[in-house]
């Protein structure tokens, strides 16, 4: 569905509701953004598209309207303010529920919090926390695993020396993993285990059943990297998997939070001039926290003898906290110009951090002292905290201009993966000099760059002879550090790189509208 809006003057503000899902909106004249607005879909502008300084254009999220993209096609594009596509990509997974259920093979499920069948042995089992769900998108992270079941004996009243009960806390579910796009996300960490440990003095604890703490759930797995380094494809960022739910003890744990959403998608295509001095951002979202583990506690005294001691109660240890949610991956930024281009602003596609792990459930204690009954103490230990979620990987930034040496391409780029139990990898930044035919590897031409890593000189050899090929060496920031015309073929071309700083570069060989890209590491 196309919509036509005619603007009378070049400075006239387009005052309609600018949200159009992923529909296409045609505008005759200029589209000047003077106040913060939400945009979505494709805008074809015959004149100038401009975001004024101090103004922010927010990209409608994929969750809101199934789009998550802003694409502008105009004669001239100027971004002096901000285009914010943070968290506008695919959603993260939902958080897991806490462990809630208490069961018993002996019919004593209520013994976790009250007296049950006081003169006989019995066992109580507690449900572990549940894992969050997988995220969404091509690089979505998979779900973690549930926390483990725990168990332990309840108290038993005896003629002499009553036996205390000791029920272990269950395990927290594992951490969500980070999503991937240009860089790989980080795998999720583990949840926290419930404790099976206790310390007693002058007291007997029932040995009818083992005290078995719930095992920790394991973390989810990061999604796969997708898309190409140098093709003209660009996509939304993907979502991290959800945080786990905390384990159960005397108290219930808490549910986990959602995984971080991926960054959105921003495409700007200019036919005469592209000028970016402001900020374009498509960062991934930080995951939410894992569920807290339930605290241990003690029942009332269940026996009727004269010594109201700790052996008459059932205590429970602390349960495990759950792992945090995974971060969303950075999104995509694609910038085209058919003519002039000046890009000196900031381009951000950072991955989101992993959510913090859930706190442990605390244990409890009982102390007793009486003249004729003696002294007792019993401490049920604390559970273990969950680990942080895995971090999201960085997204992708691509810039295409006709002639790299004629453009000013010195943006500040932020491509990093987030932090978490496992960090996300850095995303990609690519500068190409042919809008329609740049590709990671041309089908009919192979390029070798060696040694790699290199210190002083790098050799370039092609699978066939090409005259007057343009050879560019570009920093990941987009700055061209070497540009010259050479003949490429079976005889090695030697280029002095001794003055370059240590780091990662792109070697781009351009001939007849086709660019071949190789990564170069400078020692």
Automatic annotation (TrEMBL):
Chain ranges of the Secretion system C-terminal sorting domain: 449-521
The answer to whether UniProt assigns keyword Signal to this entry is yes
Q: Which UniProt keywords apply?
A: Signal
Endpoints of the signal sequence: 1-20
Keyword set includes Signal = yes
**Sorted alphabetically, which InterPro entries does this protein's record hold?**
Secre_tail
Recorded hits in Pfam families, A to Z, give: Por_Secre_tail
Q: What is this protein called?
A: Secretion system C-terminal sorting domain-containing protein
Recorded source organism is Fluviicola taffensis (strain DSM 16823 / NCIMB 13979 / RW262)
């Amino acid at each position: 569905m196309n919509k036509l809006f005619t603007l009378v003057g070049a400075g006239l503000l387009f005052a309609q509701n600018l949200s159009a899902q992923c529909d296409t909106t045609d505008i005759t004249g200029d589209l000047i953004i003077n106040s913060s607005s939400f945009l979505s879909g494709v805008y074809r502008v015959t004149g100038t598209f401009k975001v004024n300084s101090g103004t922010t254009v927010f990209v409608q999220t994929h969750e809101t309207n199934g789009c998550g993209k802003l694409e502008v096609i105009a004669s001239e594009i100027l971004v002096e303010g901000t285009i914010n596509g943070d968290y506008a990509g695919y959603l993260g997974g939902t958080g897991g529920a806490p462990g809630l259920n208490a069961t018993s093979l002996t019919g004593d499920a209520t013994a976790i919090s009250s007296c049950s069948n006081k003169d006989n042995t019995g066992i109580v089992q507690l449900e572990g926390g549940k894992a969050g769900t997988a995220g969404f998108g091509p690089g979505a992270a998979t779900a973690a695993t549930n926390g483990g079941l725990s168990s332990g004996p309840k108290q038993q009243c005896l003629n002499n020396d009553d036996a205390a009960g000791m029920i272990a806390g269950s395990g927290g579910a594992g951490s969500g993993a980070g999503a991937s796009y240009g860089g790989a996300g980080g795998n999720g960490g583990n949840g926290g285990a419930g404790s099976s440990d206790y310390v007693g003095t002058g007291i007997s604890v029932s040995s009818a059943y083992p005290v078995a703490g719930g095992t920790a759930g394991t973390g989810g797995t990061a999604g796969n990297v997708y898309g190409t380094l140098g093709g003209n494809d660009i996509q939304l960022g993907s979502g991290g998997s959800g945080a786990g739910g905390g384990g159960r003890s005397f108290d219930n744990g808490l549910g986990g939070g959602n995984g971080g959403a991926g960054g959105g998608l921003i495409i700007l295509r200019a036919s005469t001039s592209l000028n970016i001095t402001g900020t374009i951002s498509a960062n991934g979202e930080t995951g939410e926290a894992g569920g807290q583990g339930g605290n241990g506690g003690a029942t009332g005294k269940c026996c009727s003898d004269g010594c109201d001691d700790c052996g008459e109660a059932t205590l429970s240890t602390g349960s495990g906290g759950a792992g945090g949610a995974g971060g969303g991956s950075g999104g995509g930024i694609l910038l085209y110009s058919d003519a002039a281009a000046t890009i000196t602003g900031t381009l951000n596609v950072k991955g989101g951090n992993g959510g913090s792990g859930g706190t442990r459930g605390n244990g409890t204690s009982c102390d007793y002292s009486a003249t004729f009954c003696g002294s007792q103490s019993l401490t049920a230990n604390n559970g273990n905290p969950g680990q942080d979620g895995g971090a999201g990987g960085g997204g992708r930034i691509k810039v295409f201009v006709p002639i790299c040496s004629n453009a000013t391409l010195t943006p500040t780029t932020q491509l990093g993966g987030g932090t978490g139990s496992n960090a996300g990898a850095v995303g990609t930044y690519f500068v190409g000099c042919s809008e329609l035919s740049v590709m990671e590897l041309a089908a009919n031409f192979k390029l070798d760059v060696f040694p790699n890593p290199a210190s002083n000189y790098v050799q370039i050899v092609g699978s066939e002879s090409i005259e007057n090929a343009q050879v560019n060496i570009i920093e990941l920031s987009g700055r061209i550090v070497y540009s010259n015309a050479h003949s490429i073929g079976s005889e090695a071309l030697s280029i002095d790189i001794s003055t370059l700083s240590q780091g990662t570069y792109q070697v781009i060989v351009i001939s007849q509208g086709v660019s071949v890209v190789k990564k170069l590491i400078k020692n």
